Backbone:
């Protein structure tokens, strides 16, 4: 199978070299690295790639998002935008044709997954899908806002009008519904297994229906009949 060919658009030499090396190690083919959105358009005039990874370039006159929309209309090539820590940038991207926005620093597993998913999604016609990748959520508990990294969440348990989020080192009880908390979590990483439980797929140790064993915590969680099918669709079975 041919390697996925990527155009990388990044103006920081250090980031550019490091990201190029990481992508190569993940078995992607870097067709070229250019320093501005305008240079990306010029490159695509005469070269074909499978996907473009591009910094937002929010302070430029011709931004990464401007280039993204032009790439969509002229070349029909999917673009993943790479955003720094400035959340204000997101307000400028409501009408973006980017397949995805990922926040720096980038996680290799998420990056590889999103590159492949964006290319598959580009086969659909019409407006490109748009999503913002979260790395954490803030929850109000114990009279303060607590930042919780999604990777640290093992499972979430409902109790009446509250949910308890169990993480690597702590548990946070929050006055929200399961429906509300489920809407805040990426569906590819978290799955509802029971009316009272949501689990991080990455933290599953073993499954023996109707039970799931959560690694490290060694907590047994039930699989409800209504949720079994979706769970099995989200895990890879060899």
Residues:
């Amino acid at each position: 199978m041919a390697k996925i060919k990527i155009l990388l658009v990044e103006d920081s030499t250090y980031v550019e070299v490091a990201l190029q090396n990481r992508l190569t190690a993940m078995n992607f083919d870097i067709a070229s690295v250019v320093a501005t959105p305008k240079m990306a358009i010029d490159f695509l005039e005469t070269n074909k790639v499978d996907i473009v990874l591009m910094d937002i370039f929010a302070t430029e006159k011709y931004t990464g998002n401007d280039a993204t929309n032009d790439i969509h209309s002229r070349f029909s090539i999917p673009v993943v935008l790479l955003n720094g820590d400035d959340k204000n940038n997101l307000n400028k991207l409501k009408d973006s044709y980017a397949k995805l926005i990922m926040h720096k620093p980038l996680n290799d597993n998420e990056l590889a997954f999103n590159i492949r998913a964006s290319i598959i999604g580009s086969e659909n016609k019409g407006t490109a899908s748009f999503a913002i990748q979260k790395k954490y959520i803030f929850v109000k508990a114990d009279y303060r806002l607590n930042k919780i990294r999604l990777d640290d969440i093992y499972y979430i348990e409902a109790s009446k009008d509250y949910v308890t989020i169990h993480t690597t080192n702590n548990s946070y009880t929050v006055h929200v519904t399961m429906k509300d908390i489920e809407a805040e979590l990426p569906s590819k990483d978290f799955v509802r297994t029971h009316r009272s439980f949501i689990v991080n797929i990455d933290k599953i140790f073993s499954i023996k229906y109707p039970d799931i064993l959560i690694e490290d915590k060694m907590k047994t969680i039930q699989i409800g009949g209504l949720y079994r099918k979706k769970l099995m669709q989200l895990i890879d079975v060899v």
